[in-house]
Amino acid sequence: MRRRTFITLLGGAAAWPLAARAQQGERVRRIGLLMGTADDREGQTRVAALKQGLQELGWTDGRNIQIETRFGGADAARIRAAAAELVALAPDVIVGQTTPVIRALRQATSSIPIIMAAVNDPVDQGFVSSLAHPGGNITGCVTGFSQFQYGLSGEWLELLKEVAPKVTRAAVIRDPAIASGIGQFGAIQAAASSLGVEVSPFNVRDAGEIERTITAFSRSSNGGLIVTGSALAVVHRELIIALAARNNLPAVYFERLFVARGGLVSYGPDLSDQFRRAASYVDRILKGTKPADLPVQAPTKYELVINLKTAKALGLTIPRTLLARVDEVIE
User: CA 81, 86, 90, 96: dihedral to nearest 10 degrees?
Assistant: First the structure.
């Protein structure tokens, strides 16, 4: 009798957590998050934005979801290893940032839903069949630059001319390994004649090429830089910012990160907002929607950021009309 009673009690104790959880309607879901940035302030800000967006939808890390976060940085081998590690955990969905990350995740799984954030040209990269009908297991609440956002690139040249009116030559730094580099330069070139600026594309593949290109370009006067969107530029951001300062070149960047680190001005999608919005797709997938049925959405929120300390070092006076439009001023 004592043995029978013990077994009954033991079985009841083992089943209690599951019964309690079922009664509360809670089932912990696992979310993988692979960041193509370092584990720094910017990266943590984006992680926090995703968590905030999820919490607003009723998903709290440590309660009904478990978020497994990995930072791949710029190391391709590390990104591939992190992707394989997350896939092995069999999460319900994975959120990935940057093109190299999505490429690694795509190679690692064709069944686990993947949500893109800050990815250039998902169609040209072969991640989705189309923006409206992604197909497969990949979609995204937002993308960095798609064919519909190339027009934004022309505004970078307008911005460069506005902050530095003496500029008559602009070097456009782009990554030749991604298709968006061509599209972005095309939009810049289309705006060049009306602004009286000669633009030249420079394909850069590594730190050495970046340094040689910018140094050589700076030998002539009245020059400026436009750094187009790419993971390569993010990886070498400190070098690019330092070269622009050393050679007295006003530069426009595609992302706030550069201005926070000492760059002059940036205009582009608010990436923290992208992660908050990506939470809505995580929510829908956790509730049963298939990635193939979720169209890829373009950015809706953009931010203009200016570093006044850098402007002063370059001898530039930012027009009041421009300051009135700025979303953030760094001093």
Answer: -120
